[in-house]
Design goal:
The longest helix has 21 residues. Strand 12 and strand 13 form a beta hairpin. It contains five helices and 17 strands. It is α+β, with helices and mostly antiparallel strands. The chain folds into two domains: 177 residues, Jelly Rolls, CATH 2.60.120; 42 residues. Strands 1, 2, 4, 5, 6, 10, 14 and 17 form an eight-stranded antiparallel beta sheet that branches.
Length: 228
């Protein structure tokens, strides 16, 4: 399931994030690449412990907390701290790869199973050429290049890549989610059901017998599939 989350950051938050990242200490992204990714990765990123990373992380986490569609789609149990990368110039692409199944957090803070991969676009798409995120999965090949402040969620099992940036710089945040519902198929069904329930509620109200029954079914499926 690939889900587009619009407006994760508002205009003021986006300006703040872009201002912080403009003067950030970018370094070679291959320094932290895994064995497979090191052959495909050619970008820049920020250290996990630098001040710019910590500051923009807080903006993103606040955005996630208030976004109901994000919660419905991801059903997050654990969220790895957001990281940041930049593509442009000589460091402009990331070839085909699959994310590691487990993300080990720094300083022994635990680990996250990477059920859902997330990318938040932080540069205006008019400011750079190329840089599409290409995701390959059961839904076919999808090319994603979103407005600044928007986010895409896609299965951590997907082969994906970032096409070369040929003008300007592509800024983004990336992180992973361990979902309370491990199966991508089950998460998709629950997300679709929740979307339909919102539509039905808006037409018939919360107390309509059909709405009550469908809501009961949704939560009973959650009980069956959740791992909390």
């Amino acid at each position: 399931m690939l889900v587009h989350i619009q407006g994760l950051l508002d205009a003021a938050e986006l300006r703040e994030a872009q201002s912080i990242l403009a003067d950030a200490p970018w370094e070679d992204g291959r320094l932290t690449a895994g064995e497979q990714s090191a052959h495909a990765k050619n970008n820049q990123q920020l250290r996990e412990d630098c001040d710019a990373t910590v500051a923009v992380q807080q903006l993103l986490l606040r955005g996630l907390e208030r976004h109901a569609v994000f919660f419905s789609a991801a059903l997050p149990k654990h969220i790895s701290p957001p990281l940041f990368n930049r593509y442009g110039g000589a460091s402009n692409s990331f070839g085909n790869h699959v994310d590691s199944a487990v993300r080990f957090l720094r300083n022994g803070a635990g680990r996250v199973r990477t059920d859902v991969s997330c990318t938040v676009f932080l540069a205006d798409p008019a400011d750079y050429d190329g840089g599409e995120l290409v995701v390959e999965d059961t839904f076919g090949e999808q090319r994603v290049k979103l407005a600044a402040g928007d986010m895409v969620l896609y299965p951590g099992t997907s082969v994906h890549r970032v096409l070369p940036v040929t003008r300007g710089h592509r800024l983004a945040s990336y992180f992973w989610i361990q979902s309370m519902v491990r199966s991508d198929e089950q998460r998709r069904l629950l997300f679709e059901m929740d979307n339909h329930l919102r539509h039905v509620r808006s037409r018939f109200g919360e107390t309509d017998p059909g709405v009550v029954g469908l809501t009961s079914t949704y939560h009973n499926l959650l009980r069956m599939w959740l791992d909390v």
